[in-house]
Structures are given as C-alpha cells and as structure tokens.
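Per reviewer request, we include the raw input and output of the structure prediction for the construct analysed in the revised manuscript.
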Amino acid sequence: MKINIFKISLLCIIFGCACTESIDIDLNEGENNHLVVDGEITNLPKAHSVRLTRSTSYFYNQPAPAELGATVTITDGENTFILLDDDNDGTYLTDSTVCGVPGRTYTLNIELANGETYTASDYMPLPNSFDTIYYDYTDTYLSIKLPEHHYIFYSSFTEHPGVPDCYVLYVYFNDSCYNSEFKDVTWTSDGDFDGNEMFRDIEIADANEDSIPQKAEARFDLYSISEEYYDFIGEFSSETFGNSAILQGPPANIPTNVSNGALGFFCAKSIDEPYRLKLE
C-alpha cells in the first residue's frame, strides 16, 4: 500500500488551520475593572483608614490606580464619621479621635465621583487578651530539627463562652510590626475551645540569628474579628499565595462584604491591652 506523504501533510495543515479559534480574554481593563476596598475601624482612638483603588489587568505592573473624589462615611447607626482624602492618594481617614464600640455593627458608605454607591457592614466583636506568653529560642520544635533558629512563643487565653470567636494576631519587636504583610498575618478561631483556655504557638524564624534585635521588647496585639473577616483572610491567603497541592481546585472568587460588585473587605475589629514581653 502506497501512502502519499505530501497529501497527508497538506490535510493536517488544512484541518489544523480550520480548528483555530480566536479567544477574547477579559484582562480587567477599562470598564471591566472594579472598585477595591481595604478599610477598617477598631476600638482604639486613632485615624482609621479606608483605601480605595481600582483593580488592574494581569499585565499591569504599576501601583493600583487610586479612586479619588469619593464621599466616604462610617456609621454605627448613632454616630457618623466622615473620612477625608487630604493627601489625594485614595486613602480616606477619619479624625484621630474616632474609636469604635465593641458590640456594634459598623457600615461603610461610599459614593464615587461618578455617582456609583457601595456599602459594607461588619460587626465589632468583644475584645480578648492573652493570659500568658513565654518563649523559647531553639532550632528544634516538636522534636523536628529546624533549618534555622526560631523564637517559639507559647501563648494562652480564655475564650468567650457561647459565641464563635475569631482572631488575628500582629507581633511587634521594638514597636516595628513583624507581620504587617497580609501573607504573614496569623489568624485563628476558637474551634472546639469555646469557653475554655486556648493555646497557640507562634513560630518566628531568626534567619541570620540577628534579624530580631537582642533584648528587644516583643508586643502581641490580639484583635477579635468577625467570622466573615476570618473567612476572607483564609480565602485571600489561599488564592493569593496558594498551595502546591496536586489536586488543588481551580481559583475561586474571594468573598467580600462590599456591595455592587466591588472587591476587598471592610472590617471592624477590637483589641484589649497588648501583651508585652522582654526578650533576653
């Protein structure tokens, strides 16, 4: 049987071209972008911020464009606080004397210069505080040899009974925040510890054995947060920083409490007294 190689090659080219299809991909440009909200209010007297930007395309390598000229307020139903963007950079601030009240729900209202409106609400739970924190400086944890020395902080605090509690923790050394980046934030929930003493180990690598100043003062800020914000942190971390699981599912939309198709989150969180510890 004779086979004409030229004819077969020609057919492959013809059918290959016939199967080509143009696909338009939404690059999140122009009218396809969204308002992005990053805001909070706490029970501390300070200038609370709401950052407004626009989402950008995958190939955009500049800082996110700021949303300017918006009217922004926060209210608990009794008091309304006006936020101003004095620096014209998309960061809207309350007066420095504003502080929230645990047990209240706070609503963020945004009206853009083009008339579009957005709202977001979050409940400010009751604060909690650490009972004790002590530490160890070691290159071994749970009988596992670590590649570098770590500070292991062993903490405990007592849960509020009867309600689900969620927390986010910030660690400072000499008043410099160690985990200010969102990817480094520690968050946890009461789980099966409701109403009981809860234990949490905090591992911090000392990569060069001098990255944390000797005899530094460590400060631990434990914020109570809503379940909705807890879920947001978890989903954001999973989708943004991901994991390498072979059977990991496809990316999904990160939850938001902002209306009208916006992205991001507005949270209300509370704190009791920070726990301070002197490193030797």
